[in-house]
């Protein structure tokens, strides 16, 4: 599969709130690599929306066709996306993982797609509940994506201005959508003594 050109990667995977000049519309790109627990790693693949088929659906079709011959092997797939999945694709990914318990799927998105819409928020929650980790791309993921899916011509990844700040902001937004809150495992030792238990009544 052809790797991404450097200019396309910087423009399409950029996590800036607004697309940088020349303001071309940012499209959906999905980059993935299939890693079996045993045997060689499959070549990297980059997909786009094609006609009316979203990149996520094309990804599912590719993996189903590839794994039709062997369901005994366990696989790990990491996907890098320019946009988080739409509600329809989120539902399809949830079904795909349910039908293929031998696959561990992880999603990293550069940006959240229509994150203010209720249906899109529900799609992200469905992925989370289905055991598909959804996270925001940070410097480490951008560098890994650059190394494996971009025709870099030997050039290192050059982070754009405020990359980390944008990633942090999008991460907070995703956490609010998923309603992930950190809860203490133990009670605060300085907390007051527990309330007196309710009296028990003997019922004849």
From TrEMBL:
It is an enzyme of class 3 (hydrolase). It comes from Neovison vison (American mink). Its main location: cytoplasm. Coiled coil: none annotated. Gene3D superfamilies: Cytidine Deaminase, domain 2. Keywords: Cytoplasm, Hydrolase, Metal-binding, Zinc. It is found in: Cytoplasm. This is single-stranded DNA cytosine deaminase. GO terms for cellular component: nucleus; P-body. PANTHER family: DNA DC-DU-EDITING ENZYME APOBEC-3H, MRNA EDITING ENZYME. CDD domains: cytidine_deaminase (cd01283). Its cofactor is Zn(2+). InterPro entries: APOBEC/CMP_deaminase_Zn-bd, APOBEC_Cyt_Deaminase, CMP_dCMP_dom, Cytidine_deaminase-like. Residues 184-204 are annotated as: Disordered. One of its GO terms (molecular function) is RNA binding. Its EC number is 3.5.4.38. Pfam families: APOBEC2. The keyword Ion transport does not apply.
């Amino acid at each position: 599969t052809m790797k991404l050109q450097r200019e396309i990667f910087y423009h399409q995977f950029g996590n800036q709130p607004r697309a940088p000049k020349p303001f071309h519309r940012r499209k959906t790109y999905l980059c993935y690599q299939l890693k079996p627990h045993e045997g060689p790693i499959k070549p990297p693949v980059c997909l786009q929306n094609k006609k009316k088929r979203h990149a996520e659906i094309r990804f599912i079709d590719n993996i189903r066709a590839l794994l039709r011959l062997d369901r005994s092997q366990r696989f790990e797939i990491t996907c890098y996306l320019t946009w988080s999945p739409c509600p329809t694709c989120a539902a399809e990914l949830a079904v795909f993982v349910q039908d293929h318990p031998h696959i561990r799927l992880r999603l990293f998105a550069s940006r959240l797609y229509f994150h203010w819409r209720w249906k899109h928020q529900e799609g992200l929650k469905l992925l989370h509940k289905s055991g598909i980790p959804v996270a925001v791309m940070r410097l480490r993921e951008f560098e890994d994506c650059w190394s494996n899916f971009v025709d870099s011509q030997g050039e290192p990844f050059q982070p754009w201005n405020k990359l980390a700040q944008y990633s942090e902001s999008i991460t907070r937004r995703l956490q609010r959508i998923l309603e992930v809150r950190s809860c203490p495992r133990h009670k605060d030792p300085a907390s007051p003594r527990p309330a007196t238990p309710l009296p028990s009544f003997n019922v004849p």
